[in-house]
Design a protein that fits this description.
The chain has 225 residues and is an all-beta fold. The protein is 2% helix and 56% strand. Strands 1-4-5-7-8-9-10-11-12-13-14-15 form a 12-stranded antiparallel beta barrel. The longest helix has 4 residues.
Length: 225
């Protein structure tokens, strides 16, 4: 991110599980600030190690509506640009994660993002991330990882289409705990500083206890200045 630029990416995530629509509904903003042209500092609620249906940030629907807490987590990290060219970029990130506010559980997060451009309209991205738990007595916070692959198509100057597929799991009991989401959506630039979009995600298509009933709608907003 260019030096001095501030970006707020603020997705509102809404469950579409049949008979439980809207339970939960939560808001997980990420705030990024370009410290320099190669270093970005971030405050995160939608960390990359979290599965899409993992409640994060501020949850609005109460415990009866699927919210573990009103305010659930926060992380801080630094992103460093390692490689930057016209067709390929690679970043690395590391920081601390308050993975759950109640019960209190925390850890170290590390990750990377690799992105390759294919022609003028297509880009492919891979984002692996890892949470190393520091207080393993909190049973809801084992070591865990997430890997998300994305494809972006610039359909027109203001319209970006994307698809994604991921794999998320704690390292313990992988066979019974892993989830594989698949989704897609769009972002439309309303101007140089504002994007709006929608994303539909089937949150566990191929993982353990997979079901097409596990769905989520995300309203995407991004602001820059």
């Amino acid at each position: 991110m260019p030096a001095g630029v501030v970006q707020v990416f603020a997705p509102l995530q809404i469950s579409l599980v049949p008979k439980e629509i809207g339970k939960p509904t939560f808001w997980a903003p990420n705030i990024s600030w370009g410290l320099s042209d190669t270093i970005t500092l971030r405050i995160l609620h939608g960390e990359a190690y979290r599965a899409p249906d993992s409640v994060a940030g501020v949850c609005f629907t109460g415990q009866s509506g699927g919210c573990p807490n009103v305010y659930n987590n926060v992380s801080a990290d630094a992103v460093v640009a390692l490689i930057s060219s016209s067709s390929f970029s690679l970043t690395g990130n590391a920081g601390l994660s308050l993975a759950n506010t109640s019960p209190l559980s925390f850890g170290v997060i590390v990750g990377t993002v690799a992105e390759m451009s294919v022609g003028e309209k297509l880009a492919l991205q891979l984002e692996p991330s890892l949470l190393v738990a520091l207080n393993r007595q909190a049973m809801d916070n084992p070591h865990r990882f997430g890997i998300t692959a994305r494809a972006f198509v610039q359909a027109s100057k203001p319209l970006l289409l994307f698809s994604l597929m991921g794999l998320f799991s704690p390292f313990e009991d992988f066979a019974n705990q892993h989830v594989v989401p698949i989704g897609g959506g769009f972002l439309h630039a309303l101007g140089p500083n504002v994007d709006l979009g929608l994303q539909l995600t089937f949150t566990n298509v191929l993982g353990a206890q997979a079901s097409l009933d596990d769905r989520q709608l995300t309203i995407l907003t991004a602001f820059r200045r």
